[in-house]
Each structure stands twice: as C-alpha cells, then as structure tokens.
C-alpha cells in the first residue's frame, strides 16, 4: 500500500516482541497493584485474561506500539531500553484507559475480535477500571526515581489534556452535518486526529527520549515524530474501517460507512466537486439505515471521488514527516532503523 524506505516491515514483529518482553513484567506488576476487580478488567482489556480472570494465550493482546516507541526512543538517545520502562508502562496504561472510555462513548461492543470491557462487565465497571488505569499511570511515573520524574509527569499531564481535547472534538464533529457551512472539513479532522491519536504516540516517543537523558531539542523532535505517526496511523485506520478484511479486522467490511462515521476518506471525497460527491452526500444524509447495497455504493463513491487516494497520500506525507523529524537530531542509527521499520509496518498493518 505504501512503500517505506526503512528496512523490510516483516522484521517489525520481532522489534515489537522484544520491547513487549522488556516492558511486560513491570506492566504486569503495575496491574497487580490494582483492586482485584478493576485489575481483572485491566488484564482483560490488555488481552491477558477472559472474563472471570482465566488466562488467555495472548491471542487478543495488542501489538504494544506505544510501549515499543518509548523503549526504542530511549535507545535512540543512547540509553538502555530499561531506562524507559516506567514511561512505557505509563503510556500503555493511559492507552488502555482511553480505549475503555472511548468504547463506552462510541457504543462499540467489540475490540480485537471480542467484547469491549463495558460490554463484558458493564458500563459503570468499565468507567471505574478506566479511572483506575488513569490513576495508576500517573502513580507509575510519580514513583520513578531519577532526575526526570517531574518533567515526565508534566509531559504525561499535557498528553492527558490533549487526549480529552481530541475526544471532545471527535464527539462534536460526529454531530455536525455532512454538507453545508457547518460541514466538517479534512483539516478539522486532521487536527482532531493529531490530538486524539498523535498526542499519545508523541508522548511515548518523547518519554523514551526524556527518560533516556536526551536533550530538550531531541525530546521535542521525538514528540513531533510520534504526532505525525499518529495522523498517519489514523488515516490507515480509516482505510481499514471501510476496506479492511473482516477476517483480520474482526469487523464487517464497510463498517465505518454503515455507522456513518466521519473519517478521512469520506470527508476528503465530500470535499471534492462533482456528481459522485453529491450522490455520496445524499446517501449519508438519508434518514434511512444504509443497507448492503447502499454501503457498497457509498464505498465506490468514496473511492471514485478520490477519498481513498487522498487518505493514502495523507498517510505518506505524515510518514515522511515523521522520518524527517527523526533525522533532524543526532540519534543512534541502530534504534532509528528499528523505529523506521515500525513506521513502515504500522502503515502496512491489516488490523
């Protein structure tokens, strides 16, 4: 789909596994400090157990992209990956908390091919578990010894504010019309994606550099790297939400269109002129549910109006910008190559 200039993307699973293996003991120990009930929900959300606490074989575990970024950026700053473990744990806990609350707000009943936490345990329980993870993320960083604790906490607090701003914008954009003066434009969506998705990826990269002793300019460049990656990540996510393979994504094909989600391919298609864009707007504005024929037609109109191509171009631009940020400061070449492998992999992912 996108041709990265980094090393072959098939090496990325090994990079992710190495970082997960480094972080997992500390993440598991942190979860173990929670009350047993929210602790079980946290473990469920991370793919470690079933409802009731029975261990799973890891089939539902996420890739651990954010924790890997923290570890790799510490190594790129010349420090051992272990120096960023507390930051990686804090970021992973923050990510899990945000997904729990997002799923409630969006009404999503499945994630990673199984029930979401609120669906499995109830809404109130999932809110509580998310709150517990949020508090634990802050506590994890606050208790980390060393000269960078205060700066790390400031970075995490700014990230949490960014996540809230991004989610607020996402909910507000969803309520706006498809056409007319109040319609959502691609630029507004891009700004929301940087806050909602890019902020935490930027935090992961910056925390790794900060805890690894990198100077302020390098930490800033790593933060920008993650933010650009976040916009690219969201663009590819939006493509998968329309054209992803259901056997891999766990969602029906065209699922985002069926739910009339405002995603980058659709907004880019509607921003164009012409008959196809007008027909797409008419379909989306209809008070009737989109049936199978309707979503197939809508997907065809999005592609014919340039929405798919524009989204791929968006992902490419931000991937290139992320690489440029990495190369703008002195970093260890080996870890940078691994980060670039990860960048390419994320834009070729199928789930």
Folded structure, characterized:
The protein is mainly alpha-helical and 351 residues long. The protein has a single domain, classed as Farnesyl Diphosphate Synthase. The chain has 16 helices and two strands. It has helices spanning 12-31, 36-45, 65-76, 85-106, 117-121, 123-142, 149-174, 186-211, 216-243, 246-249, 255-258, 264-271, 275-285, 292-304, 307-326, 333-348; strands spanning 110-111, 114-115. A two-stranded antiparallel sheet has the order 1-2. Helix 1 packs across helix 3, helix 4 runs parallel beside helix 7 and helix 15 runs antiparallel to helix 16. The radius of gyration is 20 Å and the shape is globular. Mean pLDDT is 92; it is low at 1-9.
Topology (SSEs and partners):
Layout: H1 12-31, H2 36-45, H3 65-76, H4 85-106, E1 110-111, E2 114-115, H5 117-121, H6 123-142, H7 149-174, H8 186-211, H9 216-243, H10 246-249, H11 255-258, H12 264-271, H13 275-285, H14 292-304, H15 307-326, H16 333-348
Antiparallel strand pairs: 1-2
Helix pairs in contact: 1-3, 1-4, 2-6, 3-4, 3-8, 3-16, 4-6, 4-7, 4-8, 7-8, 8-9, 9-15, 9-16, 12-14, 12-15, 13-14, 15-16
């Amino acid at each position: 789909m996108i041709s990265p200039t980094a090393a072959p993307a098939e090496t990325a699973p090994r990079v992710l596994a190495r970082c997960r293996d480094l972080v997992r003991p500390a993440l598991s120990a942190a979860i173990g400090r929670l009350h047993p009930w929210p602790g079980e929900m946290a473990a469920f959300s991370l793919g470690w157990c079933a409802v009731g606490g029975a261990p799973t074989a890891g089939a539902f575990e996420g890739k651990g992209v954010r924790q890997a970024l923290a570890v790799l950026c510490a190594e790129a700053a010349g420090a051992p990956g272990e120096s960023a473990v507390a930051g990686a744990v804090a970021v992973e806990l923050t990510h899990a908390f945000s997904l729990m609350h997002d799923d409630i707000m969006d009404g999503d009943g499945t994630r990673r091919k199984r029930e979401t936490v609120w669906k499995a345990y109830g809404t109130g329980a999932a809110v509580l578990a998310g709150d517990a993870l949020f508090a634990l993320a802050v506590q994890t960083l606050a208790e980390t010894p060393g000269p960078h604790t205060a700066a790390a906490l400031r970075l995490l607090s700014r990230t949490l504010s960014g996540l809230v701003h991004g989610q607020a914008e996402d909910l507000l954009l969803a309520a706006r019309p498809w056409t007319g003066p109040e319609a959502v434009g691609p630029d507004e969506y891009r700004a929301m994606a940087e806050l909602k998705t890019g902020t935490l990826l930027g935090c992961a990269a910056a925390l790794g550099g900060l805890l690894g002793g990198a100077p302020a300019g390098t930490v800033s460049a790593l933060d920008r790297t993650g933010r650009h990656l976040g916009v690219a990540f969201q663009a590819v996510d939006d493509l998968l939400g329309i054209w992803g393979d259901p056997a891999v994504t766990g969602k029906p094909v065209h699922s985002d269109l069926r739910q009339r989600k405002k995603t980058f391919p659709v907004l880019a298609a509607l921003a164009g002129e012409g008959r196809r864009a007008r027909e797409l707007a008419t379909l989306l504005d209809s008070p009737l549910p989109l049936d199978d024929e309707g979503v197939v037609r809508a997907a065809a109109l999005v592609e014919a109006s340039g929405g798919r191509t524009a989204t791929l171009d968006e992902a490419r631009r931000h991937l290139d910008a992320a690489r440029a940020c990495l190369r703008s400061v002195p970093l260890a070449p080996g870890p940078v190559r691994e980060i670039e492998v990860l960048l390419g992999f994320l834009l070729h992912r199928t789930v």
